[in-house]
């Protein structure tokens, strides 16, 4: 709002210290002295997110999810009761509304469940932003910039406070990669999704070409097949049951999720089947 006394800070001025990983730096700690000083002078600090500085004084950007991560890390370091993240949607939906008509925005979701959703492809908030809240158990609220909806509250619950809530997350535009022999390819390209010792999935994005070159250099010949996808059913509690669906293979079943791999052409119909079985009340 106009007329409010404010002071602007770069990441460096705000005391955000990062490691030396250009383009994808991690926040190591935040010295909040200057921000607290501004607050003590009744000024509103406005901090440039997505950036910090190394111990050598070099500016580093935080990579995907860096702005949200900056906000949550700052809130956590300052002992904030809540951090509000604003976007162009009304919160976190129990399924991608572009895939499932009738999906709903959740009033609240546990940090464990939403972290699993984020790792499995949900794009509203990045896993690093959620992890930044874990140590201090800082509450996060995801809201819409353009209306007064209350949004979705991400809360830190005890193991005996698991809800019955179920959500779907998905990844699309994946490439199936197969090597001739067993590899430790994850050490070369951490973004790979491991299926077994020879098969992996990788996002078909602007980084794909360079990542494939790295894999070929280190491990030799590989096969590629495009147009794959995954769907994950994410629970807050242990998985109660597993169902098989046509033209999909279960590639992971852990304590609180079931992950299916399928061709992208089958994504929408398979999501509808899983939504109707697990999610819809």
Brief description of this entry?
By secondary structure, the chain is an alpha+beta fold. Helices cover 21% and strands 31% of the residues. The protein is built from six helices and 16 strands.
Description:
Strands 12-13-11-14-16-15 form a six-stranded antiparallel β-sheet. A hairpin with a 7-residue loop joins strand 9 (139-144) and strand 10. The mean pLDDT is 93. It is built from six helices and 16 strands. Helices cover 21% and strands 31% of the residues. The chain is of the alpha+beta class and 281 residues long.
Number of strands: 16
The helix-strand sequence is: EEEHEEEHEEHHEEEEEHEEEH
The low-confidence runs, each spanning 5 or more residues with pLDDT under 50, are none
The gyration radius over C-alpha positions equals: 21 Å
Name the descriptors:
6 helices, alpha+beta, 16 strands, 281 residues, six-stranded antiparallel sheet, 21% helix
List the helices and strands and how they pair.
Elements: E1 6-9, E2 16-18, E3 27-30, H1 33-40, E4 44-47, E5 51-53, E6 59-61, H2 66-78, E7 82-87, E8 108-110, H3 111-119, H4 127-131, E9 139-144, E10 152-155, E11 166-179, E12 193-194, E13 199-203, H5 208-219, E14 222-235, E15 248-253, E16 257-263, H6 267-279
Parallel strand pairs: 1-4, 7-9, 8-10
Antiparallel strand pairs: 2-3, 5-6, 9-10, 11-13, 11-14, 12-13, 14-16, 15-16
């Amino acid at each position: 709002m106009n007329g409010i006394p404010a002071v602007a800070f770069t990441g460096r001025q705000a005391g955000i210290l990062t490691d030396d990983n250009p383009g994808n730096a991690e926040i190591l700690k935040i010295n909040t002295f200057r921000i607290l000083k501004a607050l003590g002078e009744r000024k509103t600090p406005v901090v440039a997110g997505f950036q910090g500085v190394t111990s050598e004084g070099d500016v580093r950007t935080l990579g995907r999810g860096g702005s949200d991560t900056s906000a949550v890390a700052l809130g956590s370091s300052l002992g904030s009761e809540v951090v509000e993240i604003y976007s162009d949607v009304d919160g976190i939906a129990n399924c991608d509304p572009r895939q499932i008509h009738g999906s709903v925005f959740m009033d609240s979701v546990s940090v464990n469940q939403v972290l699993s959703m984020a790792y499995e492809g949900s794009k509203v908030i990045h896993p690093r932003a959620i992890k930044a809240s874990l140590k201090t158990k800082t509450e996060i609220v995801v809201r819409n910039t353009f209306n007064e909806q209350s949004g979705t509250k991400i809360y830190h619950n005890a193991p005996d406070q698991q809800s019955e809530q179920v959500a779907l997350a998905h990844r699309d535009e994946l490439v199936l990669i197969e090597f001739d022999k067993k590899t430790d390819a994850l050490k070369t390209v951490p973004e790979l999704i491991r299926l077994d010792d020879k098969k992996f999935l990788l996002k078909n994005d602007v980084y794909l070409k360079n990542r494939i070159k790295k894999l070929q250099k280190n491990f030799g010949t590989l096969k590629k097949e495009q147009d794959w996808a995954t769907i994950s059913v994410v629970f807050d509690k242990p998985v109660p049951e597993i169902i098989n669906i046509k033209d999909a293979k279960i590639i992971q079943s852990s304590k609180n999720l079931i992950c299916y791999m399928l061709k992208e052409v089958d994504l929408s119909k398979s999501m509808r089947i899983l939504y109707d079985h697990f999610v819809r009340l």
